[in-house]
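Appendix B, example 12.
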Amino acid sequence: MFADNGVAAPADWPNNEMFGDQVLLSPPGTEANAEARKADAVDDDELNYYDWWSVTRDQQRH
C-alpha cells in the first residue's frame, strides 16, 4: 500500500509520536529534485518540510 504510493510509514504508524498519522515521502534522488520538493512544500499546505530528506504529508486514503 505505501510503497506503491512512494511513501513509507514511520514506526508505530498511525500513532507515531512525531508525525502522528502522516507518512514520509521517499527521499529525492538528486539535488535538483530536493530543491524542487522544497519549493513545492512552500506552496503546498499538505507537505511538511523538515529537511531535504524528510518530508511528510497526510496519507491519501482511497
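Helices lie at 31-43. The longest strand covers residues 47-51.
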